[in-house]
Design goal:
The radius of gyration is 19 Å and the shape is globular. The chain is built from ten helices and ten strands. About 2% of the residues have low confidence. The longest helix is centred in the C-terminal third of the chain and has 19 residues. The strands form two sheets. The protein has an eight-stranded mixed beta sheet, sandwiched between helices. The protein has a two-stranded parallel sheet with strand order 1-2. It folds into two domains: 53 residues; 206 residues, NAD(P)-binding Rossmann-like Domain (Rossmann fold, 3-Layer(aba) Sandwich), CATH 3.40.50. Helix 2 packs across helix 3 and helix 3 packs antiparallel against helix 4. It is α/β, with parallel strands linked by helices and 274 residues long.
């Protein structure tokens, strides 16, 4: 890789490599954009797209994110925003799992939904979106409902993110993450309200919130009763991404052992110890 690296160094501007030169390096040396990005970060040169990250993230931090795999279970209201923000942040490998297609009622709040994509599988649109937003990021799409039989999909993921709308499925995801030793970032939304927590490996935090399997409250929660505007999933998803970033970098204080309840109508945030 000495020639590509020499090319990258010759094209940098200060400590930044412009996007056009990242593309040129990939084409000239028959490399993927992901390979070029990893080479660039390993040389302590920052791809230009991340220059606004560098006051809070070092090149080493950015490379840690790029070499991480995150599983996003559910690609609707929460999951679409999570996908977009993780791709823009520079997390290099994303897994998206969702069985659904876009319907008209998704258009008010789901970032990936558009009239042109009605009837299309959400995970297919997710792959296309990331290819447009950050082509160096790879996406594995699974057009299926998540359950205990899909646990093997999470192998190799450093963090899983809950974008589900079913309590039963959430409890199954929590169980799989516990068995695999993967931290789970949980978010839920309904109307003006949301909640967020991070379940470390081995913990039973979602069971404490929802009740143990077989004794959980109504399976679909209250989302259909209270509805969802455009802003609630954006807020909760952004907080989920912040938790993911901290987990991947081993920095800051997560919501492990705590549940953050969010009331956007009265703009109140309440923390409950679990």
């Amino acid at each position: 890789m000495s020639e590509p690296l020499a090319f990258i160094r010759s094209r940098r501007i200060g400590d930044l490599l412009p996007w056009a030169d990242q593309v040129a390096a990939a084409e000239r040396f028959d490399l993927s954009l992901a390979q070029v990005e990893d080479l660039t970060l390993a040389a302590d040169i920052l791809p230009g797209r991340y220059q606004r990250n560098r006051r809070m993230l070092s090149c080493a931090d950015q490379r840690t994110l790029f070499n991480s795999r995150v599983a996003i279970i559910g690609c609707g209201g929460l999951g679409g925003y999570v996908l977009e923000e993780l791709a823009r942040l520079g997390v290099g490998e994303l897994l998206v799992v969702d069985p659904d297609v876009f319907e008209e009622h998704n258009l008010n709040r789901q970032l990936l939904a558009s009239p042109l994509d009605l009837g299309r599988r959400k995970v297919d649109v997710a792959v296309e979106r990331v290819a447009r937003v950050n082509p160096a990021v790879s996406v594995t799409a699974v057009p299926a409902a998540f359950d205990l039989t899909k646990g093997g999909l999470l192998q190799g993921a450093r963090v899983a993110v809950d974008g589900l709308d079913s309590i039963d499925a959430r409890l199954e995801l929590a169980s799989v993450c516990r068995d695999l030793g993967i931290p789970l970032v949980h978010g839920a939304i309904a109307g003006w309200y949301g909640q967020l927590t991070t379940q470390p490996p081995g913990e039973l935090l979602l069971e404490k919130i929802y009740g143990r399997a077989g004794h959980a409250i109504a399976s679909n929660g209250v989302e259909k009763e209270l509805g969802n505007p455009s802003f609630t999933p954006a807020v909760v998803a952004s907080l989920e991404v912040a938790e993911v970033c901290k987990l991947l970098l081993g920095r800051g204080t997560t919501l492990a052992g705590r549940c953050l309840n969010i009331d956007l109508l009265d703009m109140e945030f309440c923390e409950i110890r679990l």
